[in-house]
Amino acid sequence: MIFRQVEADDLYTIIDLEYQNFDFPYPPEIINFLYESYRNTFLVVEKDRDIIGFVIGITQKKEGHILVIAVRDDFKRKGIGTVLMKKLINVYEKNGITRLKLEVRESNVAAISMYRKLGFKINNKLKHYYEDGEDGLLLRRG
């Protein structure tokens, strides 16, 4: 497996993965904007030249904000998401950013468990945060 920064040729696959993984995906124009604006913190993982996962972070006021992480269904629960997160955390740290945050669905127990193992702590409950009315959790690290 190869972990690397996103490239223009990856975007169609990333958009497809986004739509496969989320009921309320980021629209293609947002993915394109994030590609143009935050390439340094937009990472992909490929296996046999196929993109099987990605993570996107942005930086706001010297804090990293992890927007989305997705892994192809047939590669889930194999530690790929954890490695993607570690790679992104490393990119942030190399750039002097140690404070990170992210939001996660309260029902996403697997993701919450992964984030906790990576040093994130629940900071706040976000009432009706998601489009379908589900509550979210704000997690912070550093």
Automatic annotation (TrEMBL):
Keywords: Acyltransferase, Transferase. One of its GO terms (cellular component) is NatA complex. It comes from the Archaea. It is an enzyme of class 2 (transferase). Pfam families: Acetyltransf_1. Residues 1-142 form the N-acetyltransferase domain. PANTHER family: N-TERMINAL ACETYLTRANSFERASE, N-TERMINAL AMINO-ACID N(ALPHA)-ACETYLTRANSFERASE NATA. It comes from Candidatus Methanofastidiosum methylothiophilum. PROSITE patterns: GNAT. This is Putative N-acetyltransferase. Its EC number is 2.3.1.-. GO terms for molecular function: protein-N-terminal amino-acid acetyltransferase activity. NCBIfam families: rimI (TIGR01575).
